[in-house]
Amino acid sequence: MSILDLIQKKRRGLRLTDGEIGGFVAGVTGGAVPDYQTAALLMAICFAGLDQDETLSLTLYMARSGRTLDLSGLPGVKGDKHSTGGVGDKTTLVVAPLAAACGLTVAKLAGRGLGHTGGTVDKLESIPGFTAALPAEEFINVLRKTGVCVASQSAELAPADRVLYELRDVTGTVESVPLIAASVMSKKLAAGADCILLDVKCGDGAFMKTRADAEVLAGSMVLIGRGAGRSCAAVVTEMDTPLGRTVGNALEVAEAAEVLGGRGPEDLRECCLLLTEKLLELAAERDPGAFPADGAARRALAERKLDDGQAYQKLLDMVSAQGGDTSVLIKGFPEAPYRLEILSDRSGEVTRVGAEAAGRAAGLLGAGRRRKGDPIDHAAGLALAKKPGDAVRAGERLCELRASDTSLFPAAERLLREQIEIR
C-alpha cells in the first residue's frame, strides 16, 4: 500500500497491519515519506487511535529504525526513567544522578519540549558546552565513566521517533496515547536499559488531563516494556500545579541542582525520592543482592545520597563528561536581562496556579518553541513566589517573569493572571 492508502485506511478507523506499519516507519526513516503525508497519518491516528498490537508494532519498528544499544558490557543493572511531560518537571535532572549515586547505571535518552511542556534536552543544553547529541560509543563511554548519561536521540538511535516527535509538536498531535506510548518506549527500548520506570503526569499541565487517561497510557507503556522483556512499571503523579517553583530551562536546571544538594522545593524533592525508590525497586528485581529489598530502606538510601552530596557530585560528573561547564551549577547561570514582577491585587490564600498556563506563559517568554526548529532562550521563564496553599498579601509578589525582550511580558502576564486564583 502507498502512504496515501494508509492515511485513508486509518482515517476510516481500520486497523493497520504489522507490515504496513513497518513500511511507514521505513519510509519516514529513509525520507521517502514527506512531512505533510506523515503529518496526515499522525492526525488520522490521533482521531482513530491504534490498538495495543498496532502500538507495539509501531514501537518496535521505531526502536529498530536505527541502532539499538547493547549495554550488557557495563557492570550492574541498567535503569531508565521517563516522565510523560509536565510543567516545571525537572525530575529527570534529579532522579538520574540520584539513582546513579545509589548504585544503578542510568542510561537515558531524552527529548525536547513538546507543546506547553519543557524538554530535558533543552534544559541541559542551557549549560554552556553541554553535548546531548552523543554517538552510541560516546554514550556508552560516559556511562562507563560516570554511571549516568542523559542524551538526545542521535541519528543512530530511534531516528524514526526523532522525525515523528518534531512533527507532533507542530501539528497538534501530541496528545495521542498510542503516539506518546510509542515515542517514549521506542527510545527506552533502543537505549537498552534492563528496567524502565515511567512517570505518567496527570492533570491540568499534563497531556493526560484525567487519572483515567493517565492510567490507560501507563498501562499501554508497561505492556510494551514487559512485552519487550524489560522490567517495567509506572507511577501516576499530579501535574495540576507546576512542579517546584521554576519554569524555564536554565531556571529548572538550577533548581534541580538545589534538590541534589539537599535543598530545593519540598514537592520536587518528594516526587524525586518517590521515583528513585520505585526505580530502585525495579533494579532490585533484576539483582536482589545489589539493592535494598525493603521500600523504606530504598527511600533511606536515596535520602542519604541527596543529603551527603553524592547525588550532586554525580550531576557534576555527568555534565563534565558531556562537555558542560559545571561552574554555572556552582556559581549560577547567566540571567535574562529583563524581569517583571506579578503582584497580588488582594490578600488571601492562593488556591490555584494553572500548570498549563504557566507552561504556555514560559513559552511566550521564549523558553519554548512555536514552530519546528525555533531557537530557545535558555534564560527565559518564570519563578513562582506563591503556590496553592500559600498565604499572600495585597501587593506581594506572586510570580516573576524573565525574558530578553520586554514586549513579551504583557501576553504572558495576562495568561498567568487568569490562571492564578486567590480566595
Descriptive tags:
single chain, 423 residues, alpha/beta, Transferase, Pyrimidine Nucleoside Phosphorylase, Chain A, domain 3, Pyrimidine Nucleoside Phosphorylase, Chain A, domain 2, Aldehyde Oxidoreductase, domain 3, 3 domains, 5-stranded parallel beta sheet, 4-stranded antiparallel beta sheet, 17 helices
Describe what you observe in this structure.
The protein is α/β, with parallel strands linked by helices. The protein has 3 domains: 3-49, Transferase, Pyrimidine Nucleoside Phosphorylase, Chain A, domain 3 (Up-down Bundle); 78-330, Nucleoside phosphorylase/phosphoribosyltransferase catalytic domain (Pyrimidine Nucleoside Phosphorylase, Chain A, domain 2), CATH 3.40.1030.10; 338-422, Pyrimidine nucleoside phosphorylase-like, C-terminal domain (Aldehyde Oxidoreductase, domain 3), CATH 3.90.1170.30. 49% of the residues lie in helices and 15% in strands. The protein has 17 helices and 12 strands. The chain has helices at 3-11, 18-30, 35-48, 52-63, 91-101, 120-124, 136-146, 159-171, 177-191, 211-227, 249-260, 266-286, 295-307, 310-321, 327-331, 355-367, 409-419, and strands at residues 78-83, 105-110, 148-152, 195-202, 231-238, 246-247, 338-343, 348-353, 381-384, 391-392, 397-403, 420-422. The strands form 3 sheets. The chain has a 5-stranded parallel β-sheet, sandwiched between helices. It has a 4-stranded antiparallel β-sheet with strand order 6-9-11-7, with helices on both faces. Helix 5 links the parallel strand 1 and strand 2 (105-110). Helix 5 crosses helix 12 and helix 9 (177-191) runs parallel beside helix 10 (211-227). The protein is globular and about 65 Å long. The mean pLDDT is 94.
